[in-house]
Structures are given as structure tokens and as C-alpha cells.
């Protein structure tokens, strides 16, 4: 199977799961027009790294190993997809704590005699 064939197999896989509806949707994800997408489909143009990057960022459940090397399964199971939400939540909590501590430092500088009460 060629790189382009695997790419469109992944598209059809996602379409079957209801994650994407049309070629126009795919073209939008890739940031290209439908004519360029048609060139990819007809193998007049090869799938590029930028195409793969955009595709995987939007659909992380597709295995990059399968897409590029045809190794393993087409789909990464949900429990193996990194959770960026957990990291984002942690960063937000850390930011809030830093802001709280910065306010406390300012307060201590303004009113150094009140150190024991804080």
C-alpha cells in the first residue's frame, strides 16, 4: 500500500467512525483546497510531512507508525492517547498558586510587621 493509499484508508476509517464527513472537511484539516486533495487522492502529489502533521494533530487516535510505516494497528486505543487536558489543568493550578504567592510576597514587602499573621 502506498503512503497516499494509507492516508486515505485512515480517512475512510475516521469517516466510518463518524469523526469526519467529507473530503472538504479533510481538505480544511490539512489546510489545502479540494484540487490539491484530489491530487493526493490520485497520487499526482505525495502526502507531505505537513499533511501528516495536520492530520495527526486533529486525529491523534490514528497511529503515526501505521500511517508512515504500516506497522501495528491503524488506531491507537483511547487509553494510550496522551491526555493534554490533565497537563493543562496542572499548569492552571500551578499558575494560580504562583499568583497567590506573588501577592503574598507583595503584601509582606508592603507590611513587613504583619509577617506572622500571614
Structure description:
By secondary structure, the protein is mainly α. The protein folds into two domains: 3-80, 434 Repressor (Amino-terminal Domain), CATH 1.10.260; 84-117. Helix content is 62%, strand content 0%. The chain has helices at residues 3-16, 23-30, 34-41, 49-58, 64-69, 84-110. It is elongated, with a radius of gyration of 24 Å. 14% of the residues are buried. The model has no long low-confidence stretch (mean pLDDT 87).
Order of helices and strands: HHHHHH
Radius of gyration: 24 Å
Sheet having the most strands: none
As a percent range, the share of strand residues is under 5%
User: Level of helix content?
Assistant: 55-70%
CATH architecture of the largest domain: Orthogonal Bundle
Helix/strand-derived category reads: mainly alpha
Number of helical runs?
Answer: 6
Number of domains: 2
Number of strands: 0
CATH class membership of the largest domain: Mainly Alpha
CATH topology of the largest domain: 434 Repressor (Amino-terminal Domain)
Distance between the termini: 67 Å
Shape: elongated
Summed up:
By secondary structure, the chain is mainly α. It is built from 6 helices and no strands. One of its GO terms (molecular function) is DNA binding.
Question: Strands, helices and their partners?
Answer:
Elements: H1 3-16, H2 23-30, H3 34-41, H4 49-58, H5 64-69, H6 84-110
List key phrases describing it.
single chain; 118 residues; mainly alpha; 434 Repressor (Amino-terminal Domain); 2 domains; HTH cro/C1-type domain-containing protein; DNA binding; Cro/C1-type_HTH
Amino acid at each position: 500500500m502506498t503512503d497516499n493509499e494509507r492516508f486515505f484508508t485512515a480517512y475512510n476509517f475516521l469517516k466510518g467512525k463518524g469523526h469526519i464527513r467529507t473530503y472538504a472537511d479533510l481538505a480544511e484539516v490539512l489546510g489545502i483546497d479540494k484540487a490539491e486533495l484530489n491530487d493526493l487522492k490520485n497520487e499526482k502529489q505525495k502526502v507531505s510531512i505537513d499533511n501528516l502533521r495536520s492530520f495527526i494533530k486533529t486525529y491523534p487516535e490514528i497511529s503515526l507508525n501505521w500511517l508512515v510505516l504500516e506497522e501495528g494497528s491503524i488506531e491507537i486505543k483511547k487509553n494510550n492517547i496522551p491526555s493534554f487536558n490533565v497537563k493543562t489543568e496542572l499548569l492552571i493550578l500551578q499558575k494560580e498558586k504562583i499568583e497567590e504567592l506573588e501577592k503574598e510576597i507583595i503584601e509582606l514587602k508592603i507590611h513587613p510587621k504583619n509577617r506572622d499573621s500571614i
